[in-house]
Amino acid sequence: MKKKYPNRAEEYQLLELIGDGATALVHRARCVPFDEIVAIKVVDLEKFNGDLTKFSQEAKTMILIDHPNLLSAHCSFVAGQDLWVVMPFMAGGSCHHIMKCAYPLGFTESFIATVLRDTLRGLEYLHQNGHIHRDVKAGNILVDPNLGVKLADFGSSAFLFDSGDSHKTRKTFVGTPSWMAPEVIQQSEYDYKADIWSFGITALELAYGHSPFKSQSPYQILIDTLTREPPSLHNTKEKKFSRYFKQVIAMCLLKDPSARPSAHQLLKHYFFKHAKSHNRIVTDVLDKLPSLVDRVHSLKDKETEVVCQMGQLVEQEERSKIEYQKGISNWNFDINELKAQASQEDNEELSAFLRTLFELDTLHEDGEHTSDAHKENGVVSQNCTNDSPKYQAPATKSRNDDLQQDNKVVDLSKDKVELAIDECIDQPSASFSQLPSSDTAISMKDQHANTEGQVLGQKGRFTVTSDNSESSKVANKLKQQVMN
Ligand SMILES: Nc1ncnc2c1ncn2[C@@H]1O[C@H](COP(=O)(O)OP(=O)(O)OP(=O)(O)O)[C@@H](O)[C@H]1O
User: Fold this and answer.
1) Which residues have C-beta atoms less than 6 Å from ligand 1?
2) Residues sharing a CB contact under 8 Å with residue 259, sequence separation 6 or more, in sequence order
3) Which residues are listed for ATP binding in this entry (predicted)?
4) pTM of the predicted model, to two decimals?
5) Fewer CB within 10 A of the end CB, N or C, for the chain?
6) How many Cα atoms occupy the beta-carbon half-sphere of 453 within 13 Å?
């Protein structure tokens, strides 16, 4: 019989912070009655305007999951304004974290084969039960010397049968840009094969120590995924890879989803015959590392130090880290309209437009500002710049028409983009607040006007208010990027 974990906060002792994702803090903790170490994911519901649905769905999925290679939850409950999800503690942390600390050039092929085989087993179970994970990446693959390899983070996962069609497909734009399959970016119908693409990108990430799109901005990654040859595995100065490994990656990164193998088929590939018992391999890697808690501390210290030393460059790295952490979920734009625009306008203009959008959505605040923003009324503020109608994503146009009678059509031309940024610089006190959905954003509009300065406008799920002095700096930066 399954052990019944207590569902009251008083029965747990929160210990160190071991993860801070886009939506939650994760603590090592002690379950007092069992004297057992667990991990607890704490989601501040107020920060998300009490939107319990997404998180309770994730918790439910985690409680129902029953597979050795998927991170399940022991239980979940609401404590004050937080949702707590109690789960097994994975002492090695994520593969992404391990690479950052000790394997900047990626892991050995036999370690990768083991991690990927176990991840595939988890995916096979998910897919056979009608789920797509939608955020497969090294940051969501956790390891532990005793518990092995587990795929985690079901915050983006979807149940295929929920989409209401008999073909078992989805259309929502969810995931993290570098790992997103072309069909997800295009918002055409997609199914579990989207996870196989992300799995292929994850394999490259584990091989090189970073995703194949390391130094590109999110908007460029999306464009490249759609327009260029898929990335592939090549030998480097430091590392030679087997042809079997290269084959596996090539099969996963086929643009036509129907040509990609299923998890079940992939598991039969010769490459996975290399895979060892997880205990041995994971122990080989983890034994050489400091504890997860020490690693989290030293990584944080390192980040702070580098941030001080490298200013601008690090800002970019931090931004990509934020992008990595949070992915882009339920982001509100219509790819068909963008594509239609792209055929009318030249590509550079589409690029400028996408660049602006992504800057708006993924722009990193400096630390102090971010944490203040996180406390702010359940709303994550963005260091953002303007509310010009010219900047509106096509998908938000009609909604904004309701809000602003004199709304104008989207204009992607470069001079207009620059002009819009200029307008924003002229209003140095503008800021965006990122809201969980445009609907909520609209309902929050008046409230913001009362509590946080005047609402200047609405851009998708961003509300523009008049209380951010950072904006002109960022606007200048945006302008520079658009002009380059
Ligand atoms: N059970 C666990 N044991 C050990 N570390 C964990 C555990 N769960 C999560 N973590 C750590 O916390 C980090 C954030 O967790 P998680 O991905 O669940 O949060 P999130 O807010 O959904 O993140 P994301 O930014 O990916 O959306 C993970 O990358 C991992 O390093």
Assistant:
1) 18-19, 21-24, 26, 39, 41, 71, 87-90, 93-94, 97, 139-140, 142, 152-153, 155, 325-326
2) none
3) 41
4) 0.66
5) N
6) 15
